[in-house]
Design a protein that fits this description.
By secondary structure, the protein is an alpha/beta fold. The chain is built from 4 helices and 8 strands. Helix 1 packs parallel to helix 4. The longest helix has 18 residues.
């Protein structure tokens, strides 16, 4: 399966064809000396105007980032929230951390596979002798869809960015697989940098806590 995205960002995912390939980290940064992330309560955010996608992605994020709660349980409609009030509202609700993810780009890369004769490429002389005939295995062009995701982690106590990363995933087959793959790499980077050490506690029922302020 392949993942198509509509024309504007934030974007909606539409499943089409292909298969999931892999995720690679293209850039990673963490605040020098930030120490271990040990949030008591973090909010998981996926920035998109598609509320249905936001909910499904934030559920995935909350399962992969310990002690976190999907933001839609706090803010059912992100567009209704005053951006100048969201930080104090989160703090008042007891949140000391946040992980925010968003799609920043979707591109397609062309891949060319040259034609071969009887299963193996020839040198120039052999190619010259056979180029005038039809190749046994003709060349072909395929496309690979690259989805770029930005992931930021914030300490809400002093409103400070402590970790940032950009990842590129080839031909993701579903939103869930994309997020799980990205979060696996994010958690590996956090462990590598010594920032991953959590006390996991199931989140309390926080529905509308922030929205009600």
């Amino acid at each position: 399966m392949r993942l198509n995205l509509t024309t504007a960002l934030p974007l909606a995912f539409v499943l089409v064809s292909g298969c999931w390939r892999r995720t690679e980290m293209s850039a990673v940064w963490h605040e020098p000396g930030s120490g271990v992330l040990n949030f008591n309560r973090a909010v998981a955010v996926f920035a998109t105007t598609d509320e249905g996608m936001r909910r499904s992605v934030e559920d995935e994020l909350a399962m992969k980032f310990p002690n976190s709660v999907p933001s839609y349980r706090l803010v059912p409609r992100a567009a209704d929230v005053d951006k100048d009030q969201i930080l104090p509202q989160m703090r008042n609700a007891g949140f000391d951390g946040a992980i925010v993810m968003r799609v920043t780009d979707v591109t397609e890369r062309l891949n060319y596979q040259p034609g071969t004769y009887w299963g193996s490429p020839y040198g120039f002389g052999g190619y010259w002798g056979n180029a005038w005939a039809s190749p046994y295995y003709p060349g072909y062009v395929s496309t690979t869809q690259i989805v770029t995701v930005e992931t930021n982690i914030y300490n809400l106590k002093d409103d400070r960015l402590v970790f940032a990363a950009r990842s590129e995933t080839s031909d993701p087959s579903s939103v869930g697989k994309l997020i799980r793959s990205v979060m696996r790499h994010i958690n590996e980077e956090l462990k590598k940098s010594g920032m991953m050490a959590y006390r996991y506690a199931p989140p309390a029922d926080v529905a509308t806590e922030v929205a009600g302020h």
